[in-house]
């Protein structure tokens, strides 16, 4: 029994280290690309041309409407709620009114919240946090009804886990909730075994629309 637990722990640590190395590699690559892009832009300006690079998923018009997620949650035998319906991924400038709190997907801001084990002490803009979920992050949220001990223990876990973030959310129904793209569950506290199960399955899990996208270089409080 002990051996199995040790193997699981070792596997988990190896996976986290692998994600850290991948994140560092992406950061180096992005810095190189940023420098190269800057050179191209400067050259273009000198020649009298201005080029604007947009993400394929960005809105091409300010008039584009922000779509609300359509569908509903279905609760599985394991207690995880899965959103059954369409979760659009368009980057928008208009405010999105999500059908769930915290939201688990839908149109969102073009800038994500940093989610490399980031713990925030103030409530987040849902539109930025949803972008983090699109990158494969797990979002831990809590209300003032959660115990200080649970909040501290969960914060320590998040800080040690790439592709996670944590923040208060007084609008949610339960004291502690975990969210990933298209999935969500309530847990009783930091020692609830479902916390580890949710992290294991959904941190950069199969549900991730943009697996491997960075969780740094976004917004930070």
Summarize the structure.
With 221 residues, this protein is α/β, with parallel strands linked by helices. Helices cover 34% and strands 16% of the residues. Strand 1 and strand 2 (81-86) form a beta hairpin.
Helix-and-strand structural type: alpha/beta
Q: How many structural units, i.e. domains?
A: 2
CATH architecture title of the largest domain: 3-Layer(aba) Sandwich
End-to-end C-alpha gap: 42 Å
What is the beta-strand fraction? 15-25%
Q: Which percent range fits the helix content?
A: 25-40%
Mean pLDDT score: 83
Number of helices: 4
Give the overall form: globular
How are strands sequenced across the largest beta sheet? 1-2-7-6-4-5-3
| Oligomerization | single chain
Broad CATH class of the largest domain: Alpha Beta
**Low-confidence parts:** 39-64
Q: Strand tally, please?
A: 7
Would you list the SSEs in sequence order as H and E?
A: HEEEHEHEEEH
Q: What fold name stands as the CATH topology of the largest domain? A: Glutaredoxin
Rg, please? 19 Å
Protein name: DUF3105 domain-containing protein
InterPro entries: DUF3105
Region (Disordered): 1-27
Keywords: Membrane, Transmembrane, Transmembrane helix
């Amino acid at each position: 029994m002990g051996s199995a637990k040790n193997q699981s722990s070792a596997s988990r640590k190896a996976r986290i280290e692998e994600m850290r190395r991948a994140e560092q590699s992406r950061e180096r690559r992005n810095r190189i690309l940023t420098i190269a892009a800057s050179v191209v832009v400067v050259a273009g300006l000198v020649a009298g041309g201005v080029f604007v690079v947009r993400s394929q998923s960005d809105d091409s018009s300010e008039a584009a409407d922000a779509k609300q997620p359509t569908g509903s949650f279905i609760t599985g035998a394991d207690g995880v709620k899965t959103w059954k319906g369409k979760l659009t991924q368009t980057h928008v400038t208009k405010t999105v009114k999500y059908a769930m709190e915290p939201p688990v997907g839908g149109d969102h801001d073009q800038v994500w919240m940093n989610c490399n084990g980031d713990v925030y002490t103030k409530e987040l803009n849902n539109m930025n946090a949803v972008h983090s979920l699109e990158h494969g992050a797990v979002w831990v949220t809590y209300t003032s009804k959660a115990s200080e001990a649970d909040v501290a223990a969960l914060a320590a876990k998040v800080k040690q886990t790439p592709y996670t973030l944590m923040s208060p959310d007084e609008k949610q129904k339960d004291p502690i909730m975990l969210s990933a793209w298209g999935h969500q569950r309530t847990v009783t506290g930091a020692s609830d075994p479902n916390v580890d199960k949710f992290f294991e399955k959904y941190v950069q899990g199969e549900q991730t629309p943009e697996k491997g996208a960075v969780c740094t270089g976004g917004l930070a409080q």
